[in-house]
Amino acid sequence: MSVAVEAQGLTRTFGGGRTLFGGRHPAVHAVQSADLTVRTGETLGVVGESGCGKSTLARMLVGLDRPTKGTIRLEGRDATELAGRDPRALAKHIQYVFQDPVASLNPRKTIRQTLEAPMRRLRGLDARAREARLAELMQVVSLREEFLDRYPHEFSGGQAQRIGIARALAADARVIVLDEPVSALDVSVQAQVLNLLDRLKHEFGLTYIFISHDLSVIESVCDRVAVMYFGRIVEVGAARELYAHPRHPYTALLMRSAPTPGKRRIDAEEKPAELPDPLNPPPGCAFASRCPRADAKCREARPPLEPVAVGAIDAAETDGQRAACWHPLLDGASSDNK
Ligand SMILES: Nc1ncnc2c1ncn2[C@@H]1O[C@H](COP(=O)(O)OP(=O)(O)O)[C@@H](O)[C@H]1O
Ligand SMILES: [Mg+2]
């Protein structure tokens, strides 16, 4: 198994600087001590509620933001060191596709200018090579070549996201971080863009980190899934395993909240979610205040992300499914009974 991206102890706090009077401003703990391994060629899903730190994690992985602590290795090389030596080196390896496709494109640049920039800057292609590559890229994302000389506002959301994807491909990076790539699109268009992403992945041997708050989208596209809660990864495992047997009560809650055809939607938001204060994270498990299984230990000590061994099935057989929970769900059902 070769590893495309490996993050260790990745942490990002915002604020927390000194005040004029010698105290400290409160700090937002956006991502806390995240460990993540992305295997070459896989699609790793990252799922969690809005505000749990998904975009912050993604931005650090692609070098748009610097970790407060922790390391990122890209195909075995230290990403921070790589970025420090040559900011373009990182962009050749890993690219980012944004949630809001129209806003992520420069309104003053034609699609041609937008797509040519990485070809020139990162790949050093001459005019002729760029022309050929432009035609090829438009074809792979199923857009007409005549669109090249238009501006972003002339496109629908789905078309703009195809351009965003083409821009990520233009750098020839093999790892692409997709941050809620279909969340802003109409449902009918979502499927088209997901199909396109799947086709491109196989055609070009890409590795995806696919971020979404929507568990059903994640399930349809991911090999493995990492569940985030309040800045931390609380469960990770093979998608099939994780969906069949969620071990963390939060994963089970997310699944019960997901709409399924013919079933009434039990929304996670029905009960007001008591999210902890990001300025003042609790000492124990951040989910304890919402968790039906929580006891005193959960409120005092933070559970580590550890393999969950279930009866005769050991962790190796469950493809390393791990959960950060003192009382994981071991019966496989998403019941809340201990
Ligand atoms: N630049 C920033 N400055 C201050 N706080 C931020 C910044 N970016 C994100 N945050 C905070 O970090 C937390 C995680 O945000 P984000 O990574 O955008 O979550 P998600 O993508 O899962 O919705 C939130 O509490 C958010 O308000
Ligand atoms: Mg986000």
Key features of this structure:
single chain, 338 residues, alpha/beta, eight-stranded mixed β-sheet, four-stranded antiparallel β-sheet, 11 helices, 12 strands, globular, binds adenosine-5'-diphosphate, binds magnesium ion
In words, what does this structure look like?
The chain is an alpha/beta fold. It has a domain of 92 residues. It has 11 helices and 12 strands. The relative contact order is 0.13. The site of magnesium ion has 2 residues, from helix 1.
Task: Give me the secondary-structure topology.
Elements: E1 3-15, E2 27-39, E3 43-47, H1 54-61, E4 69-74, E5 77-78, H2 79-85, H3 87-93, E6 94-97, H4 111-121, H5 127-140, H6 157-170, E7 175-179, H7 187-204, E8 207-212, H8 215-221, E9 224-229, E10 232-238, H9 239-244, H10 249-257, H11 296-300, E11 306-307, E12 322-323
Parallel strand pairs: 3-8, 3-9, 6-7, 7-8
Antiparallel strand pairs: 1-2, 1-4, 4-5, 9-10, 10-12, 11-12
Helix pairs in contact: 2-3, 4-6, 5-6, 6-7
Low-confidence stretches: 263-270, 332-338
Shape: globular
Question: How many β-strand stretches?
Answer: 12
Strand order of the largest sheet: 6-7-8-3-9-10-12-11
Rg over alpha carbons: 21 Å
What's the average pLDDT?
Answer: 89
Classify the beta-strand content into a percent band: 15-25%
Ligand species = adenosine-5'-diphosphate, magnesium ion
CA-to-CA gap between the ends? 37 Å
Structural class: alpha/beta
Helix content: 25-40%
Main sheet properties: 8 strands, mixed
Oligomer: single chain
Question: What is the string of helix and strand elements?
Answer: EEEHEEHHEHHHEHEHEEHHHEE
Annotation field: number of helices: 11
